[in-house]
């Protein structure tokens, strides 16, 4: 029964494309994690005009006209 491990390896070789990729924990089940990218970091938002400040002058102008 010493060659049972060899049989399993040969079976895996018959199926191309199913080779697990190396991961940080060595399981091969997950995609590698980027060490310098925090998992729950929000996506960066491009700075732009404040929507509240942009609406305020228009609201004041509309109120002054009526």
Task: Reconstruct the topology from this structure.
Blueprint: H1 4-13, H2 51-65
Written description of the protein model:
The protein is an all-alpha fold and about 70 residues long. About 40% of the residues lie in helices and about 0% in strands. It has two helices and no strands. The protein starts with a helix and ends with a helix.
Number of strands: 0
Helical segment tally?
Answer: 2
Q: Ends: how far apart?
A: 92 Å
What's the helical proportion of residues? Answer: 25-40%
Mean pLDDT: 59
What are the segments in which pLDDT stays under 50 over at least 5 consecutive residues? none
Radius of gyration: 29 Å
Shape: rod-shaped
Amount of beta strand: under 5%
The biggest beta sheet is recorded as: none
Topology as a string of helices (H) and strands (E): HH
Structural class: mainly alpha
Key descriptive features of the protein:
66 residues, mainly alpha
How would you summarize what this structure contains?
The chain has two helices and no strands. The protein has helices at residues 4-13, 51-65.
């Amino acid at each position: 029964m010493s060659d049972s491990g060899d049989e399993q390896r040969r079976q895996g070789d018959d199926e191309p494309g199913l080779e697990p990729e190396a991961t940080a924990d060595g399981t091969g089940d997950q995609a590698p994690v980027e060490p310098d990218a925090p998992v729950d970091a929000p996506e960066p938002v491009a700075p732009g005009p404040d929507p509240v400040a942009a609406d305020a002058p228009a609201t004041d102008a509309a109120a002054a006209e009526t």
